[in-house]
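Internal tracking record. Fields below are filled automatically when a chain is submitted to the structure queue. Please do not edit lines marked as system-generated. If the sequence contains nonstandard residues, flag them in the REMARKS field before resubmitting.
Queue: standard
Priority: normal
Entity type: single polypeptide chain
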Amino acid sequence: MRRVTDGADAVGQALNRALRSVPVEKVPLFRQSFISVLIVSAAVLSTILPWLVVTDVVTMWLGVVVALAASAFTGLMARHAELRRWELVVPAADFVAVGLLRYGTGAERSVFLPIVLLAVIWIASWPGRRNVLLPLAGTCVTLLMPYLFDPGGRGPSELIRLAFALVVYATVAASVNELARQAKARLERARAQQHAVERELNRAAVVQQSLLPPDASTLPDAFAVFGACVPAREVGGDFFDWYPTSTGIAVTVGDVMGKGVGAGMIAAAVRSVIRSSVDDADPSEAFRRASVGLTTSAYDTETQFTTSFHARIDADGGVLWADAGHGLAFVRRASGRVDRLNSADLPIGVGTGWQGHRSQLGEGDVFVCVSDGVLDLFPVELEALNDLERLLAATPEPARIVEVVERLALERERSDDVTVVATALAPTSVPVQP
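SYSTEM-GENERATED OUTPUT FOLLOWS
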């Protein structure tokens, strides 16, 4: 009996694999096509091959007619969804068709009884324990049909043989039904997990959106500031920020390792702490505060770290900046030369100390900071940094830099968020003398 069960499992799994590629509305037609082809082939072979027994030609071909009628009904079901409620009629007709074929090709001597197994699997593949009993009843109809046409002439041994056949087919039905039940349970769990992931991503998207600053209208008119963040398919921990200071503006770009709500919460915490350090003269103090805050919190900073670049830009072009393992800040000079603002300091959550640095923006210079997702936009990984510097060298306006990077991010596949901020001293307008 174990071999029968294993064989039924294999048949059910093979049938399920074949059905996955078939549209739902055409599944009954797909199943019935196999049964009808087998029944028609059995009748044709019995007619042309002399060693196959034909005891009743009319009954044999009547079975073919019933199978073809069931195929026609499944064709209507594929076109009219409301007929799907009557799908049980089709395998029920197949039990009758196989019974007629069996009687017409020698009854107990017929070699075509196994065709009924397809109808058994059809019904048993529907979830629900009652779908084990229905194919058992249909098999009884198939096996007992010769008694309808010829009540006499069969001894007790035939009844015992039929009883064992029923046990075998009942085992097949129970095995397939159990497979269907397990498949449905796995599908429901997968759907629940998918919905949970979607809810988390939606919450993470809200968190990430809240990390972006309002437009630059709150900043002093002496600066032209532009920024964009293009999320990847999965929400990550990229953020950028800007806000006014007593001498100019502060600009921050950060990238938390990881994705989802956890990364967004850490990004929100780092951003808030950096903002709170607005009155500190040294921008590196913001990173020290953020590190202390994360270390004394529930966040696991041993496995979750943040790279960040924080700059204070004065109205005279002076730039005080600190880099926590970010390494992707540049000054695009008016001459077209691109200077990278390098630092050996480690990310927040890894490093323990950060140094402040000083640079100077002149007229026409542009300060640019991007996240590492920008490097993924270029085709050759080892040349990505050089490609980015060439892009900056060819693009003198801060608004245009942000526009070009944002367009590349929207046009190409990406696995990470793309963030870019560009700022320059706004040109001073000289009043025209009358």
